[in-house]
Amino acid sequence: MNPTETLALLAAKLTEHGLAAAGWTAGLDGAVRRFGVCRPGRRRITVSRHLAALNSEAEVVETILHEIAHALAFMEHGGDCGHGPRWRAIAQRIGARPERCFRGEETHMPAACYYLVHRDTGELFRTYYRRPRVVSFADRWVRGRRAETEGKLVVVSAAELEAWRRSAAAAVGPCRA
Hints:
This protein is of the alpha+beta class and 177 residues long. It has two domains: 92 residues, Metalloproteases ("zincins"), catalytic domain (Zincin-like, 2-Layer Sandwich), CATH 3.30.2010.10; 59 residues, no CATH class. It is 40% helix and 16% strand. The strands form two sheets. A three-stranded mixed sheet has the order 1-3-2. The protein has a three-stranded antiparallel sheet with strand order 5-4-6. The C terminus is likely disordered.
């Protein structure tokens, strides 16, 4: 969904469930690791513009209902209800799945900008959306694989990773029978 449609849908759902009248506001944010968030202290619900653009309208609606259930749980019970029984009951009442919505394997995610790879093998260990603060991975290793990874981890950008993979594929050459 485009950002304008997403924001309009979120605002409409807030009104439908009586939250707009209670002072709740709708917004979009730049998150890439979570789909939506309910901030009771600010009386604000936001949805990730990036994930909304990459996923179906049904997923966006489900996320909005999920966050509205958090807001209603806060309004009705006070405090943080998390994903507990009070929140689940409210989620069912408003038509949301009473479970955590966002699953990385089921949700379309934006491509990462940086990758932690093994300098010799090119094995990918982790992705990052922002450049890691660690300047050097010389004294770092992958848990359980210290002997083979200590001092051999590097962070590369998406463009560098793609160029590295192209050059590695060219070095192997076509398969011959």
